[in-house]
């Protein structure tokens, strides 16, 4: 059985990946504050600044694959991933790096394909680009980039924030001129499992196959959870009437249709 190390196993994506991969890999995972569901001897506390600890961990575990969905200080993420790649450069290990649609937040004129050159305005997006490039420069094709839009889960921070707003009778800000797609934590984990098992390489845009405005997506959730109250606060993104396109489109044909998902299916999953 191959060995997998999940960096950030206690987070939303890490939990879903752990659950999806548990029967196919010998799993190890890291956490920052909250522990994971892995056996005690297979989980380790690790913060993004602990590069030496990371190096010792990799040398001890000798993972076949590393899935990085680690969060933490932006300034330290780049040095962390450079150190990870340097530790793996003389091995056969592959890294699957969870990146973000924010690598395109400097260009809202269109939805973006995998081959489009990233352009980020936010610091978060710029750091993600730097991490992508560093991993690819050092590991070449053994660095697989997984870009995602907004990630939702039944118990995700976004869903919990919506429920909290409803409970407190507070408005939920939505944007009618921001078009985007979404992905669920469980479907992302299934798609990632397929990519790993089939040793697919390159850059992947994993999101719903259709686009929906930010306002429409939130409205369906909020109105289903609280039909008797009008809590939606409609805004214009960047305070202009222009349409902002922030979706990730895939030109790849190697993800089966059976693993693809629509925004409506994500909403239904969240409300089940």
Automatic annotation (TrEMBL):
Annotated organism of origin: Sulfobacillus thermosulfidooxidans
InterPro entries linked to this entry: dTDP_dehydrorham_reduct (IPR005913), NAD(P)-bd_dom_sf (IPR036291), RmlD-like-bd (IPR029903)
Family stated for the protein in its record: Belongs to the dTDP-4-dehydrorhamnose reductase family.
Protein EC: 1.1.1.133
Pathway note: Carbohydrate biosynthesis; dTDP-L-rhamnose biosynthesis
Keywords for the protein's UniProt record, in alphabetical order: NADP, Oxidoreductase
MF GO annotations: dTDP-4-dehydrorhamnose reductase activity
Protein name from the UniProt record: dTDP-4-dehydrorhamnose reductase
């Amino acid at each position: 059985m191959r060995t997998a190390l999940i960096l950030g196993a206690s987070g939303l994506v890490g939990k879903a990946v752990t659950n999806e991969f548990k029967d196919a890999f010998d799993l190890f995972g890291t956490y920052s504050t909250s522990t994971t569901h892995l056996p005690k001897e297979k989980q380790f506390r690790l913060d993004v600044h602990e590069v030496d600890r990371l190096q010792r961990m990799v040398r001890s575990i000798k993972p076949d694959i590393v899935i990085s969905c680690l969060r933490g200080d932006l300034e330290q993420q780049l040095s962390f991933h450079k150190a990870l790649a340097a530790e793996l450069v003389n091995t056969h290990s592959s890294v699957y790096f969870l990146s973000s649609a924010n690598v395109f937040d400097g260009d809202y004129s269109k939805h973006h394909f995998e081959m489009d050159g990233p352009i980020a305005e936010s610091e978060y997006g710029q750091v993600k680009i730097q991490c992508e490039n560093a991993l690819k420069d050092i590991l070449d094709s053994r660095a697989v980039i997984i870009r995602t839009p907004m990630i939702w889960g039944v118990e995700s921070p976004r869903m919990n924030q919506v429920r909290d707003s409803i409970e407190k009778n507070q408005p939920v800000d939505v944007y009618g001129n921001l078009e985007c797609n979404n992905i669920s934590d469980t479907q992302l984990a299934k798609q990632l499992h397929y990519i790993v098992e089939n040793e697919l390489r390159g850059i992947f845009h994993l999101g719903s196959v259709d686009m929906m405005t930010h306002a429409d997506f939130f409205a369906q959730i909020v109105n289903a959870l609280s039909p008797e109250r009008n809590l939606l606060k409609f805004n214009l993104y960047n305070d202009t009437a222009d349409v902002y396109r922030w979706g990730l489109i895939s030109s790849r044909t190697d993800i089966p249709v059976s693993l693809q998902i629509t925004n409506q299916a994500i909403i239904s999953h969240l409300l089940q």
